[in-house]
Structure formats: C-alpha cells, structure tokens
Amino acid sequence: MNNHNFKLVACFIVSFFSLSTSAQKQKTHAEIAQYTIDSCNICVEERYTIGKELFELGDIFTAYEISSLNDHTIIYNAEEQKWHLYGITNPSSIFIHLTADSLNQRGWKREKNFSTDGSAIWAPHIIFHEGVYHMFYTQIGVPRELHHVVSLDLYNWTKSEKPILAQKNEFSGDLKNKDPMVFWDEEEKQWVMYYSTMKDDKHWVVGYSTSKDLREWTEMEICYDEHTTSPAVESPFVIKRGKYYYLFLSARPWEIGGEDVFRSKTPYSWNKKDHIQRINPWHAAELVEDLNGQWYMSLSTGRQCRNFRMAPLYWNDK
Fold it and tell me: For the whole prediction, is pTM greater than 0.85?
C-alpha cells in the first residue's frame, strides 16, 4: 500500500468512528461540517467538497493547544528570526500573541496579549512596510470601526486615536465593517484594504478601500457581491499568483462552513462564477510562505473545535 492510499484508509477509519452513532449516520457531510463537533476530526482528503484546481493540503497538525483562536494574522520578524501570530481569543477584549521559530513548530510560545481600551476587538491583520509593522483590526461598537496601530518589533504598539474607517450610509448608521486584510497592488502602486461589510441595512458584501500611505483611505467600493442577507463573506484574504488574484472567504455556508476560493484577473472584482474551490470545514484561513518556500494554510478553531491548527499547502497552478 503506497503512502497516499494509506492516508485515505486512515482518513476513512477516523471518519467512520467519528460518525458511529445512528443519528450521526443520517447527517449529510455539510451538516457535519457546520453544526457538530465531528467536523474537528474530518481528514484533509474529505474536506475537498469542490475541486483541487488551485492547491492541495497535507496533514493537519496542532500548532498550539487552546480552546478558542479564530481570525488571526501571521508574520515573520526577520531581525528576531521568529514568526508572530495575533488572533481573536477569549475574552474578546484581547488578541492572543504567539511566537515560533518555524511555521511547522508544535507548541508556539505565548507572549503578552494585545489590548486597547477594554473594547471587544476582532480580526487583526499585520503587514511590514519600510521598517514598520502595521496592524489593522476591528473594534466592536456602533458603528464598528477599523483601526490602525504600528510597531517596530511586534511587541510594543502605538495607541489608535481614531478609526481609519467607520462606515455608514443612508440605509444604516452601522455597516458593520470587519475583518480587514491589506494587500499591495503592484500594478496600481497602492494599498488595498478588503473587509466584510454591508452595502445597505440588509445585504453583506466584500468591500475595499485604497490608500497611498496606509493612513488615509478612500470610501468603500464593492469587490464581491452575491446579494445575500447572510454574513457569509467573512475573513477576506487575497493573494496573487501569476496573472490571477485569488479571494478566500470564510463561513460558507453560514454559520460554520468552509473556505471558498474565487479567481479573477483583477484585485477589484470577483463574482460567483469565479468560484473554483471549497475546503469544508475550514475557517478564517491565512496563507503564509516560510523561508524555504513551503506554504501553509492555517485553520481557526471556529465555534465547535479546539486548538489552532495548520496544514502544508501544495500549489497545483504551475
């Protein structure tokens, strides 16, 4: 038996025992993925509900044991030679801060938490630009606000004096903008910040704003709109490979579902026909490349599982 077949058999055995009761046997795969604790034990091979066109994943491993770690960001500090993670945990007024020597390390080290004024904070994203680390995050209130702080070392951060975005329109005083992710558009020579938001008082979209300096941002435009009242356009993450831009979205279907991938030739527009792949269950993925060129895809706990996990990622688009 070759190694690939062995993994398939092992995956089948684990899945069989995790679905052993008669009630569980009546459930569809989608129901297991969304609503039950059994989704935690589903092997990688059973998570490909739509395609393997873009990438395949290796075995999932536990990087840090914790009851809750959701939307997060991972970045490398070259001077310190360490990886840093900040992410949502309990209580919601802090971001957990972890460090590791490598992305495949089991057992990251916990550092001092990040906090603001005691408000609930969600979904950090960190980039490095011209010697400075920039963190963007959501602060919960009415309206929800997107904030920006900076650091020279990933340990000590400035305080945010005012939001960079707190959107409202003629339909609502709170468009519930959240989950910022910042991307550099080399062609247009500008920064693009993606976020989950509402276009009126009912319908959720992925919005974006642009900036030349990371401080002043344009008003929202829409890059993905399926005219849905479901908030299942969470945690947008954009990556460019070759001539294509890939948009990753979470909680599909809502509330705890999978990770959908969309492909476009522009970083400013995707639609439903651009959908090429789904990994289900999966939640709030970050894609990151280590110093040796190996890619990883991270897996948040969601609401039904435990532990922060990762899996090596192998591209099929070359």
Answer: yes
